[in-house]
Inverse folding.
């Protein structure tokens, strides 16, 4: 048995309250929400969607949209898994409701 455990047992026998160190918290794994390019969704719709769902100003949203248009895909935001997956689902639902084929995905960020 370790010295610490013996000390704790001895102390609790005496009725002394022993403060346990809480376990170190793990950083949650982060997920990036990406939009994929397609040939049909209007640029203006994509810019407005990025402003609405990812809280970006018009200039930033336009830059992200153009990057997706030119590179094929682009990151709109980085969140914990629940939030990233919920956002991707909401964006896909919104695009479908507006009859656009725009696709949104959530994927784990590279670990550092
Ligand atoms: N490529 C589309 C067009 O030329 C615009 C677009 C940009 C579509 C980004 C999807 O995620 C996207 N109208």
């Amino acid at each position: 048995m370790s010295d610490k455990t013996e000390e704790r047992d001895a102390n609790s026998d005496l009725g002394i309250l022993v403060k346990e160190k809480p376990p170190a918290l793990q950083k949650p794994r982060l997920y990036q929400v990406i939009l994929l390019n397609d040939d049909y969704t209007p640029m203006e719709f994509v810019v407005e969607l990025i402003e609405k769902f990812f809280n970006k100003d018009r200039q930033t949203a336009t830059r992200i949209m153009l990057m997706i248009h030119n590179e094929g895909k682009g990151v709109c935001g980085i969140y914990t898994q629940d939030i990233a997956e919920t956002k991707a689902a909401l964006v896909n639902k919104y695009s479908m409701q507006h009859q656009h084929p725009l696709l949104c995905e959530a994927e784990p960020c590279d670990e550092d």
